[in-house]
Amino acid sequence: MASPPPPPVASSLRTPPPTQPLHGPATGAPTGPLPPLPASSRCSPLPAQTPLNGQATAAAPAAVPAPLPPPARPSTPSYSVERIFRDFTYRRVALIRALTTDEKAFSRECNAATETLYLYGNSDGSWELRPPKLLMPPGQPDPRMLGVKLVRGNMKRSEWLGLIAVNCDAWLIRISFFLGANLGAQERQRLSTMINSLQTVREAFVASDTYRRICHLEKTNVEIDDEDEGCGTEPTICANCGDRYRRNGFWICCDECDRWFHGKCVKVTAAQAEHIKHYECLDCCSDKKGHDYDD
């Protein structure tokens, strides 16, 4: 038979939860209801955050690039057409005078030089021979500082001066269009017309009396008549080989028969002839038993 349930105990009735925390009261915690917020603090926005190290915030709009400025107008040329042509004229006159009127002084300075010289026609109408400047500006060099290089080699005098004249023309054109780099198309055309109205340096040199004189001397040096030797109008010929007299060769005259001979035909040099007081050719020597000149 089952036993009856135990009677209820008074201490088992539920008690209300304690108002204090189980682990003791918190230090400084309020015991009453929280005070209401002040009116100034309700819905107040947060202060804006200052960007660090100059960084823009993500909300800043992208910068729009500024429009490009219009192209600048070409600058005013520093040299006018008239000024460039005046400079061309003075330099041209100086170069022509160096190759014609002052040709002897020009050639004398070239022959006495020990280094490569350049010919310069200055803007004041004078010419000079000097080495080029060692220090050149960077970029395109100024042609006024270069001059005309003088290299002769084995050329004849007339050919050499003619080549210098051609190089002078090219040098003058380079200077003119170097100074007129900022000129417009019409101004460049007008400058070309003014330059072409003058003779070139080569044309002026070929038409000069200096060129004709040099050509005449070169022609007569190749073969010349014996008019200045006192033998009439007949050309002098070598009594041994029959060839005509040439000025650039050594000749010797027989003191007995007055006939002329090439030095190479009679095997006599110019140095040996200086020590011969009385020269007799082989034909005259064969008619005598001896001769009175030293070998």
TrEMBL record:
InterPro entries reported for this sequence: Alfin, Alfin_N, Zinc_finger_PHD-type_CS, Znf_FYVE_PHD, Znf_PHD, Znf_PHD-finger, Znf_RING/FYVE/PHD
Gene Ontology annotations for the cellular component aspect, listed alphabetically: nucleus
A UniProt-annotated Pfam family: Alfin
Compartment(s): Nucleus
Superkingdom, natural source: Eukaryota
Gene Ontology terms describing biological process: chromatin organization; regulation of DNA-templated transcription
Biased composition (Low complexity): 21-31
Ranges of compositional bias, category Pro residues: 1-20, 64-74
Disordered as annotated region, ranges: 1-77
Subunit structure: Interacts with H3K4me3 and to a lesser extent with H3K4me2.
Described purpose of this protein according to its UniProt entry: Histone-binding component that specifically recognizes H3 tails trimethylated on 'Lys-4' (H3K4me3), which mark transcription start sites of virtually all active genes.
PANTHER family: CPG BINDING PROTEIN, PHD FINGER PROTEIN ALFIN-LIKE
Entry's family note: Belongs to the Alfin family.
Protein name, as recorded: PHD finger protein ALFIN-LIKE
